[in-house]
């Protein structure tokens, strides 16, 4: 389990997460509830890490709701998670939704 995975569990147990306005709009567009989001965070897999992101390091996660894949970008701020965006990955850009396809 990565340091980020451990931190997700800790911050979720404290209910310490903030959903950005951008993520809220995307969730509404995709009919993703806050409960769905928590499930994605608890059960998702970290597929990319962005340790140098500012103002907080972040990760890209892959999770599923009703067999539908979702990507989440999650920031790790000092005392909370910041949900930056939620989207449905497409097969054109991703291999098994986990690995970016190389540009031609």
UniProtKB/TrEMBL annotation:
Source organism of the structure: Methanolacinia petrolearia (strain DSM 11571 / OCM 486 / SEBR 4847)
Pfam families: DUF4258
Top-level taxon: Archaea
InterPro entries the UniProt entry points to: DUF4258 (IPR025354)
UniProt name for this protein: DUF4258 domain-containing protein
């Amino acid at each position: 389990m990565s340091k980020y995975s451990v931190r997700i569990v800790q911050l979720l147990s404290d209910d310490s997460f903030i959903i950005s306005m951008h993520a809220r709009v995307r969730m509404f567009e995709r009919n993703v509830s806050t409960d769905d989001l928590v499930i994605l965070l608890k059960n998702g897999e970290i597929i990319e890490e962005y340790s140098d992101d500012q103002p907080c390091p972040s990760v890209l996660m892959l999770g599923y709701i009703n067999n539908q894949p979702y990507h989440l970008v999650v920031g790790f701020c000092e005392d909370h998670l910041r949900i930056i965006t939620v989207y449905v990955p497409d097969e054109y850009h991703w291999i098994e939704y986990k690995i970016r396809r190389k540009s031609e």
